[in-house]
Amino acid sequence: MHHVWPSLVGKDRYTCVGLMSGTSMDGVDAALVSMNASLERPRVELLRFSSAKYPESLRESLADLAAGANVTAEEVAMLATSVAVAFAGAFFDVCRDAKADARAVDFVGSHGQTVAHVPPGSGSPVAATLQIGPPAMIAALTGVTTVGDFRSGDVAIGGQGAPLAPYCDYMLRKSDTANRVILNIGGISNLTYLPAGASRDDVIAFDAGPGNMVVDTLYRALFPRQGDYDEGGARASVGAAQRNVVERMMRHPYFAAAPAKSAGHREFGPPFAWALKTAAESEDASHEDILATAVALTVESIVDAVRRFLPEGGVDEVFVTGGGARNRAMLAGLEGALAPVPVRAIDELGIPAEAKEAVDFAFLAREALLGRPNVLRGVTGASRALVLGTIARGSE
Can you tell me the distance from the alpha carbon of 266 to that of 116, in angstroms, rounded to the nearest whole number? Predict the structure, then answer.
């Protein structure tokens, strides 16, 4: 018997907000969402999406923390509060933008801000993951019941704690007729393979490798004060990728490791980016060539993962989400490498690429509050499927 959270009993529709900040740590995405209560045919409608940048000082402190800076417990505690305040601010922003009454929101699903992710198999003596921005703080600041800290329960029982989106892809985006890949190119790229009419045990999903993480790090280093990323892939589009550098970087052991697997700053953070840059510079690459090489690496790692870990000839269509869906150099590379399989932006399935992850965390919160296991244990490698998420009560 599912234990439904008391405030949802008897309702057939929920209004909720999903809050997300990814590995790029640039700010908080907020999605105001309407959902039905159906267990078998869940439907999600995006009412409003907004994105709020972190204050520069907070962003720098978070990047230092994730990169292993010498930080005290007191400083981590203060950063956690600052993140919760930023998340609560994003909640009120999206409600205000939509002219929606914040008090009428049924619940919040918050990803929090990942500052460490050390899953099983990463060579550390203890598996761990840390998302800061405590759900209890967000619930206190907004007055709305908040579900957060989705990854830690999975990690506790041998899972990777990631990726979590495949459960949402399975529930909301599978097709009865087509073998579909949902490809998320965020800081890290991950893919979900949904065979036609899939059962939950048929889903294959894992982190393929670096998404925008390496490209964005190099862009900021090579083109200082010209924005946080290569808008539309414009600079990378005019560069020439160094194929032998791509091949050299593809020797990283992560790419050959079999799923379940997840990646982050440990594997593809700044040291990996500098190694690519150094290798490309030794070939006299221009700044644009270096970016094009980083884009080609992302494309190659995705295509390699499709060939290596998905059934041969088993992909009919690919839908791209995350920031990479707006990088024309990346999409062009994928279209060329995966042809004749069509590659499209996920917007065609009804949710814009920018909003998908925030929407997914709202949906994971719905499932937690309905008492439903909201993870595919075959994807994370956990010993059993849990109801993930810590529930912090709002002022109901």
Answer: 9
